[in-house]
Amino acid sequence: MMKKQEYGYFPDDCWEIIFRKLGEDDLDSIALVSKQFLSISNRVKHCLTLNAETLHLFPNILRRFQHIKSIVIASNINKGIDGILDQIARSGILLNLHALRFRCHIEALRDGFRALALSKNMKNNLQRNSGFVRLECSTMMSITDDGVDALALKLKELKEIEFSGDSNTCFITDKSLISLSTNCVKLRKIHLYLFGRDQYYLTEDGIGFVMRHSTNLTSISLKFWSSQPFAIGNGFTNAKNLHSLTLGGQALILDKHMSLLAKACPPLKKLELIGFMGGYPENHGVLKLLSHACQLTLEELTLSGWSLTNTDISNLAQYLSNLTSINLDGLSGLTSFTFYTLTKSCPLLEILKMAGYKKSAVSLELESSISCKSMDFGLLESHILSGNWDACIDVLYGLDELTEEIRASALFLICRQSLLECLIHGDDSSALSALRKQISALHLGREKVHKLAFGLLSLKEMGLGKVDDAVIIESRKNLLSEMEKLLPPPLTLPERRLEHLVEMAVSGQIDSCIYHNSFDPVSLYDDHRCGRDQIPTETIQILTDHKNEVWFVQFSNNGEYLASSSSDCTAIIWKVLEDGKFTLKHTLRSHNNPVSFVSWSPDDTMLLTCGNVEVLKLWDVESGTCKHTFGSHGFTVSSCAWFPDSKRLVCGSSDAEKGIYMWDREGNEIKAWRGIRMPKVSDLAVTPDGENLISVFSGKEIRILNVTTNAERVISEEHSITSLSISGDGKFLIVNLNSQEIHMWAVDGKWVKPLKYAGHNQQKYVIRSCFGGLNSTFIASGSEDSQVYIWNRRSPNPIEVLSGHSMTVNCVSWNRKRLKMLASASDDQTIRIWGPSSSLNAA
């Protein structure tokens, strides 16, 4: 007996780790094995299903499973739900419920929700924990405004809610949506599924209220199955934060609704339009939505129930270049032309569901006589599918091309599958016996034993629910997928190898194109080569409102404004119109000395201005009023920057010992780096992620400070640095030197030497450069010879030299949203706006 215990006994904490990986149904069976398993399963069970047979035991069940996070009310309970909720409220148990799911036909929930709302135990629980995060009410539950209002008043931490019902069960109106939006400020997902009704009590007012006030709402699903149109009206005009949208039913998918949604321009990543029986030509709103609003963000698209042709798909495909998944399953009439069109137009596509193409890979192998798998892997595959684990081990030992590390990992997977199949059949003793036998044969060691026992007995991850042959076969297929990823070529074809090769070819073409500056997909059918019309090369407007030298320009982050500053002691905010023309919005007059620097807040609502002998001022962009002046008149600021939250800012002083200050927008000092050993700061910037504060000290040093860890790194240059700029992704920085060079460094410190760019003229004055274009591919700089220079980052020599100014060009700024727009500021008192050559465009 002692010997058996030595090999077969697992302590409770080991079993608990294993049980946590099991499905809820499996825990019920395991609880019958022994008292030990019963006790452990009670602790790890998180979901409780209450049905008619167990209803009378509910109080005892609550006391037994005090760790449950989800309660499901089963479909065979048809009365007394208010009483059930009352029992939960009065149980005296501090529950940490995250979800309530009602799948039963019941009366309207009023008193039960109120009982939960008044429950002291639930109240205390919600104060300590996140509270309910999900409520699901299914098709047979009566739902009223009273019940929803009682729910919303209590469950203020609610993040997801799902309602579904027909005309006999769902009676909610705009009042419910308003109550949820007002009280549940963290609400991020709403799912409404209504059917069998000719009239709905929800209106555009309710949906519009949610869109305006639920600032955290990122996902909304509306499925209204009715022959009568549903008036969303202007409800979608505020849908600016939606990442996921599902619309089901002809009542919703109307041309005007899609047009309004396109106007809101939400950053949709997932779009599902289901059950629309019309054809594409009659629904121009969808075209607008896909082309204007979602072209840069949309990753998943489902079109179900549409009458689409190959031509329709071809017209849509040009707007789907960023798709990774498209579901056209169930659309009849589409042929291989659509398959070809989508694979050509969507280079990132990973999932394509389309009727008739589920066996394409198999057919391709048969027709080409080329297999994706070697004979050795085919033999291993047959042994895995038949469950012959000893034969699998023999095959792996016979593969000479495997390294010992890969072989050990592959054997490990085989051992795991063998043990899993013993466990799901309830044969624990055989599993332990196999564990001892296989470990002895494979020489895996004690640490490997623990890893196998604790980390790899994961039924849930293998997708196992019920013990039957279909589940076993599916788990073995999962094992095959893992083997395909693990084993090297030529045993298997690496996953997504063709996609990788295509991406390399596309990247190679882009890298060789010095003017590439477009989101348009690159085709392998032609040699890719962009023309000069992809970058700004021609003056399209000259701004002359400053009365003296213009020292600084910077576009706002959204590309809709330009700010400039001058030695005439003013700064100007310019508005960029739809046609690319500029108009003066505000002239900012409050400084007594020249203004040499401006900085936009990340949300573009505020602007900072400062100068070498000036204080720092904060301006409201919309009104043009000065909101705050930082520091005293004895504290001059040379440069400033924002943190990504638009609430904190930093500034550096050109006075020695004054150093760097961090303030909030109200002028409260948060932190300061100053003192006798602090040199003067000539320029500074903050990376877009807010992690690094980068500054230029003592003229020749670049200091990169991690504001979280206080880790600091210094880059020393041989010549004086006049300016600093950071790339859009925060990975690179450039500095202008008075040696007539621009140096680019990696912010993470991996580069020993910088990349260098030359050709411009800089010896005496402060000249500023910037990154620009697609993925910060280009560098632009002013010059003392009155010209603007543009480089491709991969080349040290300029690709364009822009003439037009009559005196030194002090600063340039590239519009982040309009990739072909550049602004330059000069001592000739003008700002030039540059765009693509009109002659090139005409050609």
Summary tags:
24% strand; 24 helices; four-stranded antiparallel β-sheet; 843 residues; alpha/beta
Q: Describe it for me?
A:
This protein has 843 residues and is α/β, with parallel strands linked by helices. The chain is 30% helix and 24% strand. The chain contains 24 helices and 40 strands. It has a 12-stranded parallel sheet, with no helix packed on it. The protein has a 4-stranded antiparallel sheet with strand order 13-40-39-38, with no helix packed on it. Strand 22 and strand 23 (648-652) form a beta hairpin. Helix 17 (375-386) runs antiparallel to helix 18 (389-397), helix 19 (404-424) runs antiparallel to helix 20 and helix 19 runs antiparallel to helix 22 (469-486). It is globular, with a radius of gyration of 33 Å. The termini are far apart.
Task: Provide a compact summary of the structure.
By secondary structure, the chain is α/β, with parallel strands linked by helices. Strands 1-2-3-4-5-6-7-8-9-10-11-12 form a twelve-stranded parallel beta sheet, with no helix packed on it. A four-stranded antiparallel beta sheet has the order 13-40-39-38, with no helix packed on it. A four-stranded antiparallel beta sheet has the order 14-15-16-17, with no helix packed on it.
